[in-house]
Amino acid sequence: MKLTKSLIGCIFIASSLMFSSCAGGVKDKDGNIYKIGKRGNKEWMAENLNVSRFRNGETIPEVKSAGEWERSGKEGKPAWCIQKNDPENGKRYGKLYNWYAVNDPRGLAPKGWHVASDEEWKQLTDYFGGEIFAAYKMRTLGVSETGTGTSVSGFSGLPAGACTSNGSFFGLGSHGFWWTATELTVSNSWIRLLNYINCSVNSLNYNKLFGLSVRCLRD
């Protein structure tokens, strides 16, 4: 039994190192530095994006009221918010962006990086062994997000929850939502949902007015 546990522990450690062994990090326009990890021939951020400016230095508007959030979305204007408008949540989970910030031509990702597409997310979950195995490897250790904030793979998919089109928050501590860069219709785009409750990763399409987390990878 002890040998089995030791072997499992070694596998977990090796898996973590495979994702988080890339040297250095990547800096955004605000000066935030993100850990990076390699999967196959792709380099991903190992943390959620937390930038408040586009690549050209122009400010992305912060929204704190439900009415303003809904209005920004309906007008097709980029915006970001923090889960429950709590700065501590921003430090831990990063920002939640609407689709118009993700798709803005001024560039949300740092130079040399881009918001992951639907196909690139699929490649990542396939690399982890499919959606069920990927969920276990991408989420942070434990049934919920309590603990170190690390994961078996080093991806650290913290459950930041989301902001609805009408500005209400949900899913904190139980679900992680990420935009992909792939548009589906005029009103919807593809996302990835990491569900901590049933340990699954799902490909869904959400309304562009929602506020979700963002992960980037190197060009």
Describe the structure.
The chain has 219 residues and is of the alpha+beta class. The chain has one domain (2-218). It is 26% helix and 24% strand. β1 and β2 (33-39) form a beta hairpin. α5 crosses α6. The N and C termini lie far apart (45 Å).
End-to-end separation: 45 Å
Order of helices and strands: HEEEHEHEHEHHEEEEEE
Query: Count of helical segments?
Result: 6
Give the total of beta strands: 12
| Total count of domains | 1
Q: Per DSSP, what share of the residues sits in E-state strands of 2 or more residues?
A: 15-25%
Identify low-pLDDT runs: 1-18
Strand neighbour order, sheet with most strands:
1-2-3
Index terms:
3-stranded antiparallel beta sheet; disordered N terminus; alpha+beta; 24% strand; 6 helices; 219 residues; globular
Please give a quick description of this structure.
Helix content is 26%, strand content 24%. The chain has 6 helices and 12 strands.
Sequence-ordered SSE layout with sheet pairings:
Elements: H1 2-20, E1 25-27, E2 33-39, E3 42-45, H2 66-74, E4 80-81, H3 87-93, E5 96-97, H4 99-102, E6 113-115, H5 118-127, H6 131-138, E7 162-163, E8 169-170, E9 175-183, E10 188-195, E11 200-207, E12 216-218
